[in-house]
Write a structure and sequence with these properties.
Length: 268
């Protein structure tokens, strides 16, 4: 009788514990927001943005990063040889999407070469190779010619079939998924472009959205996927060094989402 009484009394407790555990399990399915960071630039470069959120933060960052030195498209070749140099081999660059280390001298348009990948596809907003968005190092990366061609102007999303020599990247009819080590990089490059180019400098107002197949519209999707990639793949030492090189030597502006990945969630 005593045992029966204990079982009856414990049922509500057991149910409560089970419900609590179920809640904890569900919560772990969603990655937590990126932790707040501090940088040496918060009291200088980012002074007018720190502490803001939403449209106010986006507007402040736009003003800050719009002050930049612009490169010609031909100058991008040599810049990429420095910004994307293989830290283990100064004669090579690291290729986006495949992760391969390839000789700096193999830049060009033939099979086996690397070329200049516009991560924000230049047809999305129709800015081409124009000085400005078409030459902005913060979204231009060395990429294998064939892998670059496969990506084309596809939007970004999860899933697809393996890309040949793509390092684990996937592709389907309307989207491209970079290898895991590059997903956060891609997200932060896309969102940099959305803040930098707001339609006030003669170019289209670039914005991420929840679609794929955006075509020539000035949009790239999917925003929710890019946000998840930003959380799952935080800025690497390579990405941070690249951001610094662009700031110190070339454009003299920064990608704020490399310095503060939590600002992605604060804006979007």
């Amino acid at each position: 009788m005593l045992a029966t009484t204990r079982i009856r009394r414990c049922k509500p407790v057991a149910l409560a514990i089970a419900a609590a555990l179920a809640g904890l399990t569900a919560a772990t399915l969603t990655a937590p927001p990126a932790a707040a960071t501090t940088t040496a630039y918060d009291t200088t470069y980012y002074r007018d943005a720190v502490g803001k959120t939403g449209t106010s933060l986006k507007s402040s960052l736009h003003t800050i990063i719009s002050s930049q030195t612009k490169l010609s498209y031909s100058a991008v070749w040599n810049a990429l040889k420095a910004t994307d140099q293989d830290p283990n081999n100064s004669n090579n660059v690291i290729l986006l999407y495949s992760g391969e280390s390839r000789s700096k001298s193999l830049n060009g348009g033939d099979t086996g070469d690397w070329n200049r990948e516009h991560v924000w596809a230049k047809s999305h907003g129709d800015f081409g190779e124009a000085t400005g968005p078409g030459t902005d190092l913060h979204h231009l990366r060395p990429s294998d010619v064939r892998v670059n061609s496969i990506r084309g102007n596809l939007d970004f999303d999860n899933g697809g079939s393996a890309v040949t020599n793509g390092g684990g990247s996937l592709v389907d009819s309307d989207s491209f998924q970079p290898r895991a080590a590059d997903r956060g990089d891609v997200a932060r490059m896309i969102l940099y472009m959305a803040v930098r180019y707001e339609g006030d400098d003669g170019f289209a107002d670039l914005e991420p959205n929840e679609r794929v197949g955006n075509g020539s519209n000035p949009h790239i999707g999917k925003l929710s996927v890019l946000k998840a990639w930003n959380e799952a793949d935080p800025p690497s030492a390579f990405e941070e060094k690249r951001n610094q090189a662009i700031y110190d030597t070339y454009q003299h502006n920064r990608n704020p989402f490399i310095d503060h990945p939590e600002w992605v969630e604060a804006i979007w």
